[in-house]
Amino acid sequence: MDFYAGLDVSREATNICVVDDGKVVREAKLDTDPDAIELLLAEWGIRLKRVGLEAFSFSAWLFTAVAEKGLPMICIENRHAKASMNAMLKKTARNDAKDNAQMMRTGLFRAVHVKSESAQTLLALLVARKAMLGKVLDMENMIRGLLRPFGFKVGEISVGRFDARVRDLLAGKKELEAIVAPLLDARSAMRQQLAKLHRVALTFRAAVDDPPRFKKSTNLGAGFGLTPRPYQTDQTDRIGNISKCGDELTRAMLYEAAIAILTRIPKTFKLRLWGVRLARKKGLMRAATAVARAFAVLLHKIWTSGATFQFGAGGKRGRVAAAT
Fold first, then answer.
1. What is the C-alpha to C-alpha distance for residues 85 and 208, in angstroms, rounded to an integer?
2. Residue 89: what pLDDT?
3. Under DSSP, is residue 4 helix (H, G, I), strand (E, B) or coil?
4. Is the pLDDT of residue 316 over 60?
5. What pLDDT was estimated at residue 223?
6. 0.70 cut: is pTM over it?
7. In the predicted model, is pLDDT for residue 195 greater than 90?
8. Domain range for residue 265?
9. Are 137 and 191 in a shared domain?
């Protein structure tokens, strides 16, 4: 007889439910601790075929720790879990664990990849970099706002000249300079730390983590939510907006890169030429989305196969390392 377990996890407590043939066999609530979970299941003496928990920020650690103990762990995609749980009349942690167990039994779930510790570290770095950049921009905008009532306009200025420009404007205004100078010092320190984070911002690598998990490079677009979602009924058949599933940070990065490809790089780049032709027909936003999908495919192929990348027609070939 096959047994299936579902976990509903919070920081403090975890609810466990085990089912077989649709019936609840065991239920329990215990501390969120991998050793405690392993011990409880061992005491029950039940051999599990699948153990499922919903994907969220805390689940990656627990998933890895429990899987290392030999349990057949599966991380459930949030949208599938939410759709199933919305059908419940009463939402509780106990019922959520039961619903996860039933999804494991029926196979009506979509498993998601749990990133490795190295990928999680890179992701933490990227999130920190994004947060730091936001704080730096907030600081610069605040300084501009403080100077505006006094008739001082910083204007469009490069990052490197911002500090000198503000100090020049404040020359002779000792009281105002005493207020703004500490803000400039704080902004300078934040810029220095941001530069350190910026040098190792490997967004794509952190999101993909394990390249072979995408059997085809063309699956990258769907994996990062960059493919249109079809909507079909008896009377309707249309293509909607992109799904926006998967890693939001990577999707934004690919889109920004696509905009840069369409507007900044040399015209000899074939991907740019294709995107520009598409933009004339579909508009810049749709063209950028298509270029982002194609760019993701290109990066994945380079990473997995070490293929030669040729920049533009007749350009000089150069080997691109997968780690970069």
1. 28
2. 67
3. strand
4. no
5. 86
6. no
7. no
8. 204-319
9. yes
On whether residue 324 sits in a domain, the answer given is no
Beta bridge partners of 13: 31
Neighbours of 308 (CB within 10 A): 10
Domain count, the chain: 3
Enumerate the H helices of the chain as residue ranges. 34-44, 59-67, 78-85, 93-106, 117-147, 162-169, 174-198, 203-208, 220-223, 248-263, 270-282, 284-305
Q: What are 124-168's pLDDT values in tens digits?
A: 888 888 898 999 999 999 999 999 999 999 999 898 999 999 999
Whether 81 maps to a domain, the answer reads: yes
Contact by Cβ (8 Å): 116, 60:
no
- Please indicate, yes or no, whether residues 235 and 304 belong to a single structural domain of this protein: yes
What integer best gives the mean pLDDT of the chain?
84
Output the CA–CA distances (angstroms, integers) from residue 171 to 139, 142, 168, in the order listed.
20, 19, 5
Residue 124 lies in a domain: yes
- Length of the chain measured in residues: 324
Tell me if 89 is assigned to some domain: yes
d(CA 189, CA 181): 13
- Residues 129/135, Cβ–Cβ less than 8 Å: no
- Cα gap 244→233, rounded to integer Å: 22
Q: How confident is the model at residue 199 (pLDDT cuts 50, 70, 90)?
A: low
Dihedral sign of CA atoms 284, 288, 289, 291 in order: positive
Which of 7, 163, 201 has the alpha carbon at shortest distance from 95?
7
- Other Cβ atoms within 10 Å of 237 Cβ, number: 9
**Claim to verify: residue 76 and residue 100 sit in the same structural domain:** yes
Poorest-confidence range of 107-116, 229-238, 273-282, 289-298? Answer: 229-238
pLDDT digits (tens, 9 = 90+) for 67-81: 888 889 999 887 767
Q: For residue 98, what are its two tokens?
A: 């039961």
Asked if 312 and 269 count as a contact pair (C-beta separation under 8 A), the reply is yes
CA distances from 181 to 146, 153, 171, 185, 186 (A): 12, 16, 11, 6, 9
